[in-house]
Amino acid sequence: MAVRREPHERMTEKNNGLSDTQEVLYQKEFKKADRAWSRAKGNR
After folding, report:
1. 3-state DSSP call for residue 9?
2. Where are the compositionally biased (Basic and acidic residues) regions (predicted)?
3. Angle 28-31-36 from CA coordinates, rounded to 5°
4. Is 6 strand, coil or helix?
5. Is 42 helix (H, G, I), strand (E, B) or coil?
6. Are 24 and 32 in contact (CB under 8 A)?
7. Tens digit of pLDDT for each residue in 1-44?
8. Using CA atoms, how far apart are residues 44 and 38, in angstroms rounded to an integer?
9. Structural Rg of the chain based on CA atoms
10. Which H or E element spans position 1?
């Protein structure tokens, strides 16, 4: 059975035009969104 992944984990690894610093900030934003989604899901 395939592991269910969050949508951003299915994105390709190709160059998306971001600098290294922007990429790190982008990943931090995804992590924040994942934590918020997990908390909201758990509170239902």
Report:
1. helix
2. 1-13
3. 130
4. coil
5. helix
6. no
7. 566 666 555 555 566 676 766 666 777 888 888 888 888 888 75
8. 10
9. 13
10. none
Cα angle 30-36-38, degrees, rounded to a multiple of 5: 100
Two tokens at 39? 């908390």
Place of tokens 């395939």: 2
The closest of 27, 8, 7, 10 to 19, measured between CA atoms, is 27
Amino acid at 36: A
* Of 8, 15, 4, nearest in space to 29 by CA: 8
Token pair for residue 7? 């949508």
